[in-house]
């Protein structure tokens, strides 16, 4: 790809996430003027002609299609954005890679570990192609500050951690079936949908998972096949997932992912406890990182240690808008993930997060599922 002048983008799937990605592509030139080649929305692909045409009109894509083949055949298209249900990632990614297109893939990497490995193998056969993952929660300034503190050794040896991603909305047994509730389409439930984010954050901050002990629970085992339908179908994925994990660096912790956490909204949180300090982040309070510095102990009246709220708000280097002091929102981290991917494409280097991050998160998901089937037996996370 000649990235010096423009990057042509095709979006496959135009549900909430596909629409969100598209909106972000259009606003990047305002956030980072002159930092990227011109971004051209070349094509959008959905399963029905009417939705494809509506997406084209809404976002200003050059073309609208209902099949992947004409999209990847476009010689002016450089990047394929895969915003599809999990089980559909593999065929679209393989087609894009075979056509020499860069790929930006929503999490999780795939519906199954077999499909995830197949994607990695297809990428290995296309060495000049770049692959980016959507793990946008890395890109909150508070999370990046936490990584900086850890990498500088200010937390010291990390003993324990806890991560959780809690959603509500599935408690009613009258909520109908969707692809997210079918294993053949989603791969797994809350574990992949929400847990993949928590898994990636733990990896980003603390390194690799070594072993896990998992438990999965499905509370509502059948649901209406559609709104108002009397006929019901089986729910074949987990509603809630819990697992204990040991990291390669020695830390031990727990991860929880739930769609049944009544009263929550988008509660992604982590706690890290170490020899010299501790950290806490809450997605519902994303403008701050909480930091406990043990080195401040020992003065008069017990010293000056205590939980401190570090003001991170919207400090992104080189961004022109919004002002750094502005409160941050959920979408800004998504936008930054896309910016860093496109910047890597323009600079002809591998993006981060990339294929390794997607595959290793999938390997943890697979290990938790294998452990749960064995009643919580300790299992090792498989190598790549």
Task: Describe this protein's structure.
- There is one protein chain.
- The protein has 384 residues and is α/β, with parallel strands linked by helices.
- The chain has two domains: 6-136, NAD(P)-binding Rossmann-like Domain (Rossmann fold, 3-Layer(aba) Sandwich); 139-326 and 361-373, Dihydrodipicolinate Reductase, domain 2 (2-Layer Sandwich).
- The chain is 32% helix and 25% strand.
- The protein has a nine-stranded mixed sheet. Strands 3-2-1-4-5-6 form a six-stranded parallel sheet, with helices on both faces. Strands 9-10 form a two-stranded antiparallel ribbon.
- The longest helix is centred in the last third of the chain and has 19 residues, at 355-373.
- The protein is globular, with a radius of gyration of 21 Å.
Summarize this entry quickly.
The protein has 384 residues and is of the alpha/beta class.
Key terms for this structure?
single chain, 384 residues, alpha/beta, Rossmann fold, Dihydrodipicolinate Reductase, domain 2, 2 domains, nine-stranded mixed beta sheet, six-stranded parallel beta sheet, 11 helices, 17 strands, 32% helix, globular
* End-to-end Cα distance: 29 Å
Query: What is the overall number of helices?
Result: 11
Could you give the order of strands across the largest sheet? Answer: 16-15-14-13-7-12-11-8-17
- Count of spatially separate domains: 2
Determine the CATH topology of the largest domain. Answer: Dihydrodipicolinate Reductase, domain 2
Q: Give me the CATH superfamily of the largest domain.
A: Dihydrodipicolinate Reductase, domain 2
Radius of gyration: 21 Å
Structural class computed from helices and strand pairing: alpha/beta
Topology, number of strands: 17
CATH domain class name of the largest domain: Alpha Beta
